[in-house]
Amino acid sequence: MSIVDIHRLQTRRGFEGQNIYFHKNHPIQFVCLAGYIVTRDEYERRTVLTIDDSSGSIIEVVCLKAPITDTTETSTPTTTAATTTAAEMINVTSTTRAPIDISILRIGTCVKFKGTLSPKFKTHTPTMTVILERFWHLTDTNSEVRFWNERSRFMIDVLSQPWYLSADDVEELRKQAQSQERKVIKDRQRKQERQKREQEREERYQRRVMRRWEAEQKVREAEEERVRLDNKRLEKWLALKREPKE
């Protein structure tokens, strides 16, 4: 899609918070666009590229960053907090969070991007932002023209045609939804039963521990009573030993 068409995508009731937008009645979650990088800004948690495709609008493509999980110690220690932060972060894709190398994405480079959509509220009217998933470097004009042709064909053959589901498609989707709902219910029931069994097992264990403690407590009390009686007899015997003999 062109950038100006991406900004024209609409939201629909019932799809809030899912990052799904609509061109006419076509649901769109991923977009492809191509253009030249005009700015590149680095932040702690993201890299922001501004793209211009000469359609009359520009768009920001955001490449997320995440901490490196397998860090290796370098021989030269870092000296500043900014250097340390940069060394511990790496660019990742939007959905799988897989590492992605964007070192070739420099100002003036022509690139084809694929990513998910996210609204940006700079003004009262939200504009779209693309969260980067993949990219392809368009090395020459022929590559650009091929993308323009693909974009035009997709717009005419797909997006300009009403999205229609036949009765068989609707029935199949209904069956899938019902099957998924039954699966969710069964999973919930299994989870509840598992939690109930775990609770019963825990209660049985607590009762067993309590019975054992009570039995041991009776033994301790009996031992204390025996010791008390022995001490009492010992005190009597010592008292008799201390009495003077006649």
Automatic annotation (TrEMBL):
Limits of the CST complex subunit Stn1 N-terminal domain: 18-65
Protein keywords: Chromosome, Telomere
Gene Ontology cellular-component annotations: chromosome, telomeric region
A Pfam match: Stn1
Protein name from the UniProt record: CST complex subunit Stn1 N-terminal domain-containing protein
Main localisation: nucleus
Keyword check for S-adenosyl-L-methionine: no
Region named Disordered: 181-206
Matching InterPro entries: NA-bd_OB-fold (IPR012340), Stn1_N (IPR018856)
Signal peptide: none
Subcellular localization, as worded in the UniProt entry: Chromosome, Telomere
